[in-house]
Amino acid sequence: MQAVVLDRFGGIEELHLRSIAVPQVGDHDVLIEVQAAGVGSWDATEREGGYDGVFGVASAFPYVLGWDGAGVVAQVGDAVQDFVPGDRVYAASTPVPRGGFYARFAVVPEAHVSPVPAGLPIEEAGALAWDAVTAQSGVDLLNPAEGSTVIVFGASGGIGHLALQFARLRGARTIAVASGHDGIELSRELGADLAFDGRVDDIEAAVRNFAPDGADAALITAGGAGALAALRGVKPSGRVAVPHGVRLDPAVDDARVQYYDGDRRQAALRRVSEAVESGALRLHLAHRFDLDQVREAHRMLAGHHLGKIVLRI
């Protein structure tokens, strides 16, 4: 099969398109003929070796990136019950140990596969899974009450723009700390009660002007000085959720901060699908690239963009 592979970790120039073997299908696996693969913000870190060994599995080359994707079921393992060849599915996988979605075929445990939401284009489905379950899990952890105030820091990014929508589903008032005028506009389109540019505006002052006693909760999707300013905007009794992989200042010692992983089980994916099908959740695609344009996709990762990037396989 054709796949984008790494023969060693490094820069964009290490991404190569060539033929490799189709992954083996175990009893509980689903082999997906991939039509679209998400390009996540974490892919660049992984490409450079930032996740080498962190999952308790030695990295093996050729290494195929890609944590989420969508396509058609090509084959199922003997113990698989919920899927048959021909089903349209999307999934949240991990590139180790058997390879990710930057390929013509990807193998994923049945437990992390779900039918594509009705009416959702396959390219959007391919970029949806991991960002959506990470956003959903973060909002679940915060558990905002109706009418409470939630800061989403990084609200125009892949996880953030979805978290903004999940918080609104809970009836929360949302403060979107976005990037750029286009990020502000996207946040407003998605229903943010307050949206501003965290790189330009005084974050703490803007939050306090909207919520004088401080916000009730915050979801932080990126590090840096802005993240610390957002933390200061949360009331002492508030809660702060940070996905694992987001690096806050090592000096931060705040009992309100809780790190978490996205829940990618089928039940969580079904909740995502229900939100999409009801019209309450939409994915914003920054750009679509063909598989042989993967280097261009990773260059875009390094710059300003909104939402998610997708590869057409």
UniProtKB/TrEMBL annotation:
Record InterPro entries: ADH-like_C, ADH-like_N, ER, GroES-like_sf, NAD(P)-bd_dom_sf, Zinc-ADH_QOR/CCCR
Family matches, as Pfam families: ADH_N, ADH_zinc_N
Keywords, alphabetical: NADP
Stretches assigned to the Enoyl reductase (ER) domain: 10-311
Listed CDD domains: MDR_like_2 (cd05289)
Record bears the keyword NADP: yes
Protein name, as recorded: NADP-dependent oxidoreductase
